[in-house]
Design brief:
12 helices, Malate_DH_NAD-dep_euk, oxidoreductase, binds 1,4-dihydronicotinamide adenine dinucleotide, alpha/beta, L-2-Hydroxyisocaproate Dehydrogenase, Chain A, domain 2
């Protein structure tokens, strides 16, 4: 790593950023030796709020922070950026159609993708969080032709963490002993949380597959999947705000693993550019199981796809193709 890295966070005055920024400057994302220059982008109306966030960053007195820039200018924000976490997005407002949301966000992520293309470090790693995350990521990637496609990803790690936790709760084990759950597809209610190849560490050196531990296929194929798919809505219904601390934790997990690598044999879920693996056509941002080494991810190959899983993959694939077609039609790309 370089002496100091420029880390851009968009939507910096928002809910998720209010947890995320503090995870980063504590060292949870890039380690305890990495100096960080924070670049905080938000809309003009939120600059006053951002001033308060900056005061709190200063008041934490974390030694890793070497500079803080607050800006509303995308070109300034992405100049020499090493990492960009794109959290800010147009939220769905009452009465807004899905197509209106896609249109508004496609425009935002086209502009940000172009700014990344023109001004960022060519090795930048970009994580898109703002929804619809997969399609926003696709638009940013397509707008940044000079940056390798593999440098773009979208967040499905929150869904991955939710799936791990639900399995741990059902099996009565610690979440650290649950491994290799997978989220396939879109970060939406069509995602497919899949634990057929996952396992639990039962005792020292002894593993058991998740289906063997849970011994309840109806639950695994029914309630488990729908709980994970609808967890975001359940949090909103209870908290009256969308997931923020858990989203920030998932972003931290995603970036830390992307930069520092995954443990041997461990899969994590990431929305990445599809390459034809598992029959998912190239040209989409699709969540796959990946392993990561030296800053590069590899889609895990050769996992069995049964009829049930194929149907689930087809549903989420269809939704992503429709989102892509709609978003591209707005942008004339
Ligand atoms: P929030 O509404 O609290 O904050 C969003 C911030 O983004 C606001 O400060 C807003 O001014 C800013 N913003 C909007 N458009 C912008 C633009 N063009 N440039 C810069 N800043 C902009 O929202 P919150 O809770 O922080 O969530 C942010 C996004 O993350 C939402 O789209 C949400 O749906 C998504 N999300 C994604 C998850 C995932 O797993 N992929 C999980 C949870 C949330």
């Amino acid at each position: 790593m370089s002496d100091e890295i420029n880390v851009v966070i968009t939507g910096a005055a928002g809910q998720i950023a209010y947890s995320l920024i503090f995870n980063i400057i504590k060292g949870d994302m890039f380690g305890l030796d990495q100096k960080i220059r924070l670049v905080l982008l938000d809309l003009p109306a939120f600059m006053e709020n951002l001033k308060g966030v900056i005061m709190e960053i200063e008041d934490c007195a974390y030694p890793l922070v070497t500079g803080i820039i607050a800006t509303t200018d995308v070109n300034e924000a992405f100049t020499n950026a090493h990492y960009a976490i794109l959290v800010g997005a147009m939220p769905r407002k009452e009465g807004m159609e899905r197509s209106d949301l896609l249109k508004a966000n496609a425009a935002i992520f086209k502009v940000q993708g172009k700014a990344i293309n023109d001004h960022a470090n060519k090795n930048i790693k970009v994580l898109v969080v703002g929804n619809p995350a997969n399609t926003n990521c696709l638009i940013a990637m397509l707008s940044a032709g000079n940056i390798p496609k593999e440098n773009f990803s979208c967040l499905t790690r929150l869904d991955h963490n939710r799936a791990k936790s639900q399995i741990a709760l059902k099996a009565g084990v610690n979440v650290k002993d649950v491994h290799n759950v997978i989220i396939w597809g879109n970060h939406s209610t069509t995602q497919y949380p899949d634990v057929r190849c996952g396992y639990v560490n039962v005792s020292a050196g002894v593993k058991s597959t998740i289906p063997n531990i849970i011994k309840n296929e109806a639950w695994l194929q029914g309630e488990f999947i729908s709980t994970v798919q609808k967890r975001g809505g359940a949090v909103i219904a209870a908290r009256k705000f969308s997931s923020a601390a858990s989203a920030a934790k998932a972003i931290t997990d995603h970036m830390r693993d992307w930069v520092l690598g995954t443990p041997e044999g461990e899969y994590v879920s990431m929305g990445v550019h599809s390459d034809g693996s598992y029959g998912i056509p190239a040209g989409l941002i699709f969540s796959f199981p990946v392993t990561i080494k030296s800053g590069k991810y590899t889609i895990v190959q050769g996992l069995p796809i049964d009829t049930f899983s194929r149907e689930k993959l087809d549903i989420t694939l269809k939704e992503l193709q429709e989102e892509k077609d709609l978003a591209l039609s707005f942008l004339e790309m």
